[in-house]
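Can't paste images in this forum, so I'm doing it all in text. The chain is below; anyone willing to post the predicted structure tokens underneath?
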Amino acid sequence: MYEITPYTFAKAREIGVTVRPSHDRKKKLDVYRNGVLIASVGAIGYLDYPHYLETKGKAYADERRRLYYIRHPRNTQGELLAKILLW
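Text version of the structure:
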């Protein structure tokens, strides 16, 4: 099970949503607004910005973030939430 980081909790507070570990075993987070599930985001098999920060340092994490943004140019609701909460 994915351990939600303080970074993600802070970002969720900023945009007015709550996050919990996902019930979908392939996803990291379930995102709720007013108690209603709006999306499941983050593939469980990949690291994210806060985990790169912790393990590899800021410079490496920033580069991984830059590359993530290049690979994910669309902004569907799920992708946008993943960018905000995990990157």
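The chain has a mean pLDDT of 96. The first helix runs from residue 6 to 15.
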